[in-house]
Amino acid sequence: MDYDQIAAKLSQVLSTKRFQHSLGVSRTAANLASRYAVDTASAKMAGLLHDCARAIPSKNLLQMAKSFDIVINDVERCQPILLHGPLGARLAQTEYGISDPQILRAIALHTTGGSDLTNLEKIIYLADSIEPGRDFSGVDKLRRLAAVNLDVAMLAAYDQSLYYVIEQGVLIHPATIEGRNYLLLQRQTTT
Q1: Within 10 Å of residue 101's Cβ, how many Cβ atoms?
Q2: What is d(CA 108, CA 65) in angstroms, rounded to the nearest whole number?
Q3: CB 50 within 8 A of CB 124
Q4: Do 88 and 49 meet the contact criterion of CB atoms below 8 Å apart?
Q5: What is the pLDDT of residue 191?
Q6: Which of helix, strand or coil describes residue 4?
Q7: Distance between CA 76 and CA 171 in Å, rounded?
Q8: Spatial contact of 41 and 131, defined as CB atoms under 8 Å apart
Q9: Cα separation of 191 and 188, whole Å?
Q10: Would you kindly state where each structural domain of the chain is located, as residue ranges?
Q11: How far is CA 14 from the centre of its chain?
């Protein structure tokens, strides 16, 4: 399937609001990709498909993840919504014909992040946070940072995510902490 065919299929699966968000992430990812010399077609496709599993009810996410043999940690077991990234990568492969492992990994990690991300993975994580439909305190700062330096923007995005998760009183995914720590350690070893 090409981009337009996938978009048409997604428009039937996702709510109007979620579909518009996915289009916004796709455009934002393509813009960031062109700025940071990443394949724009890959970024555009990963952005479009990043939430392809988001319409699946939380009560079904665990069972679906198990059916795909996705390893589930304790945090994901308690907060199944976090599985929509890894499950989305599997659906992108099985339902939408995506075989590029870089696109699939960017989809899988777009919610939690992780250590040693590629630029494409950083772009999808950030695009999900800063697409034009997003409106939260600090989003404009993230947009400015993303236009200047991916790692600085990622660190700020991790911080923003951690503040939000702590405020909500829910569990913190270890990949988010690992991603943040990885960037801080990289910064220390280069100075």
Answers
A1: 11
A2: 12
A3: yes
A4: yes
A5: 65
A6: helix
A7: 9
A8: no
A9: 5
A10: 3-190
A11: 16
CA 10 from centroid of its chain's CA atoms: 17
Q: Which pLDDT score is estimated for 190?
A: 76
Residues 3, 10 contacting (CB under 8 angstroms): no
Tokens of 182: 């990885």
Spell out the alpha helix ranges (H) of the chain: 3-13, 16-35, 40-49, 58-67, 74-78, 84-94, 101-108, 119-130, 139-146, 150-168, 174-190
What distance separates the 2 farthest-apart alpha carbons in the chain?
Answer: 50
- Fold category of 3-190 in CATH: Hypothetical protein af1432 (1.10.3210)
In the block, residue with structure tokens 């059916």? 67
Q: Are 66 and 72 in contact (CB under 8 A)?
A: yes
Q: Which residues contact 152 (CB under 8 A, 6 or more apart)?
A: 145
Distances (CA, A) of 175 to 2, 76, 83, 162: 31, 11, 13, 12
Q: Provide the 3-class DSSP secondary structure of residue 173.
A: coil
Question: Cα(66)–Cα(71) distance, rounded to whole angstroms?
Answer: 8
Per-residue pLDDT of the chain (191 residues; tens, 9 = 90+): 899 999 999 999 999 999 999 999 999 999 999 999 999 999 999 999 999 999 999 889 999 999 999 999 999 999 999 999 999 999 999 999 999 999 999 999 999 999 999 999 999 999 999 999 999 999 999 999 999 999 999 999 999 999 999 999 999 999 999 999 999 999 888 76
